């Protein structure tokens, strides 16, 4: 625990008199200290606010859609585009670490799709952040859209940390992921206004305990709306589309 | 693994606030509900700072436990390891997170003059 630098009294510790000599070996006592107190996500959040303003200026609502890899976001989006064609003008921001495979699957439904490959950075990024979404905005005809669906990178950890300027966050959760994920990834589940419980057509074939899952979800996010769906069979997709339309 | 991009943000802030002076330590406060792994942060910092004027500086993490306060009965308690966001006192679910979401640079410790670039 040597590098964990706990201070009950917050930032006001002074290293020249509080006995951290060993931990700070090599540094003279009395070294100058600069108080900072600056939020590390400050720059991201500034850009997120600008994105939010850009959406609002065009009368567009933006939904940040998050999930594990393979939970069914892209399939749900295909079904959504197909059902809402002619009713809601939708743009997609598609985040993927590599490849345009998901963007390709969404082509041909009449929606504008802006792909962001996040693999360019060192090690690749496992989430969309606000500057990435900002870079995609010029590639969408915001003035001609009602709704932008932001398909985040499949990941239950990092996307929850980054405000991208959305109006709402929603999750797609596949019942193949088991009952306990809300307890393991509480920050993600707590960040969402809606959880679409997907792949319900598989329920008879799994040991998945739906009540236990909902109970775990309620433990970390009592206020979340829950919809049960199968993007494959179309069950519940209408309710999801209604939820989206209610936001416009 | 968002620690890498986070380290880039930390480097930007540290450089700006140090105003050209050499930094030895960057003190960072991380709430329990921030999904930041301190060891990973420290490791990523060594990668990000390598071959920059920040090379040799260290990140020191101060962890802050999450605390929730119940709007129904007023009880405030640590969240603990199993994150049930229900009040341990009355079972109420209308709770406010009062600590544990911090993520900031609290201070920089500057290197003595002549110690580095």
Plain-language structure description:
The complex is a heterodimer of chains A (248) and B (117). Chain A has 8 helices and 8 strands. Chain A is an alpha/beta fold and 248 residues long. Chain A has a single domain, classed as 3-Layer(aba) Sandwich (Rossmann fold). In chain A, strand 7 (194-198), helix 7 (210-220) and strand 8 form a beta-alpha-beta unit. The longest helix of chain A is centred in the N-terminal third of the chain and has 16 residues, at 42-57. The model of chain A is unreliable at 1-28 (pLDDT under 50). Chain B folds into 2 domains: 1-65 and 100-117, hypothetical protein PF0899 fold (2-Layer Sandwich), CATH 3.30.2320.50; 66-99. Helices cover 24% and strands 31% of the residues of chain B. Chain B is built from 2 helices and 6 strands. A 3-stranded mixed β-sheet of chain B has the order 2-1-6, with helices on one face. In chain B, strands 4-3-5 form a 3-stranded antiparallel β-sheet, with no helix packed on it. In chain B, strand 3 (67-70) and strand 4 form a beta hairpin. In chain B, helix 1 packs across helix 2 (38-49). Chains A and B meet through strand 1, helix 1, helix 6 and helix 7 of A and helix 1, strand 1, helix 2, strand 2 and strand 6 of B. Strand 1 of chain A pairs antiparallel with strand 6 of chain B, so a sheet runs across the interface.
Lay out the secondary structure.
The complex is a heterodimer of chains A (248) and B (117).
Chain A: E1 33-39, H1 42-57, E2 61-66, H2 73-84, E3 90-96, H3 101-106, E4 112-117, H4 130-136, E5 147-151, E6 168-174, H5 181-184, H6 186-191, E7 194-198, H7 210-220, E8 225-228, H8 237-246
Parallel strand pairs in A: 2-5, 2-6, 3-4, 3-5, 6-7, 7-8
Helix pairs in contact in A: 1-4, 2-8
Chain B: H1 3-18, E1 23-31, H2 38-49, E2 58-64, E3 67-70, E4 76-78, E5 95-99, E6 103-110
């Amino acid at each position: 625990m040597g590098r964990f630098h706990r201070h009950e009294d917050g930032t006001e510790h002074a290293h020249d008199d509080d006995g951290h000599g060993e931990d700070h070996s090599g540094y003279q006592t009395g070294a100058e200290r600069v108080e900072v107190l600056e939020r590390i996500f400050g720059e991201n959040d500034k850009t997120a606010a600008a994105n939010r303003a850009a959406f609002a200026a065009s009368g567009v609502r933006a939904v940040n859609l998050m999930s594990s890899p393979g939970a069914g976001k892209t399939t749900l989006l295909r079904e959504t585009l197909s059902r809402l064609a002619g009713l809601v003008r939708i743009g997609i921001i598609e985040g993927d670490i590599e490849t345009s495979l998901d963007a390709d699957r969404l082509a041909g439904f009449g929606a504008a799709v802006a792909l962001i490959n996040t693999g360019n950075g060192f090690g690749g990024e496992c989430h969309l952040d606000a500057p990435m979404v900002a870079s995609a905005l010029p590639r969408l005809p915001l003035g001609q859209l009602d709704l932008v669906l932001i398909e985040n990178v499949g990941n239950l950890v990092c996307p929850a940390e980054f405000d991208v300027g959305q109006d709402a966050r929603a999750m797609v959760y596949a019942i193949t992921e088991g009952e306990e994920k809300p307890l393991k990834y509480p920050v993600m589940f707590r960040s969402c206004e809606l959880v679409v419980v997907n792949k319900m057509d598989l329920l008879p074939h799994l040991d998945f305990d739906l009540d236990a899952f909902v109970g775990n979800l309620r433990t970390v996010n009592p206020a979340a709306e829950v919809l049960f769906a199968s993007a494959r069979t179309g069950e519940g997709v209408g309710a999801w589309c209604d939820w989206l339309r209610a936001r416009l | 693994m968002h620690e890498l991009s986070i380290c880039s943000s930390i480097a930007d802030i540290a450089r700006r606030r140090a105003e050209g002076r050499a930094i030895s330590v960057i003190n960072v406060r991380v709430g329990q509900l921030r999904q930041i792994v301190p060891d990973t942060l420290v490791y990523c910092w060594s990668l990000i700072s390598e071959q920059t004027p920040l090379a040799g500086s260290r990140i020191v993490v101060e962890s802050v436990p999450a605390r929730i306060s119940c709007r129904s009965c007023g009880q405030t308690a640590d969240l603990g390891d199993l994150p049930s966001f229900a009040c341990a006192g009355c079972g109420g679910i209308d709770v406010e997170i009062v600590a544990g979401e911090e993520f900031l640079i609290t201070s920089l410790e500057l290197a003595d003059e002549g110690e580095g670039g």
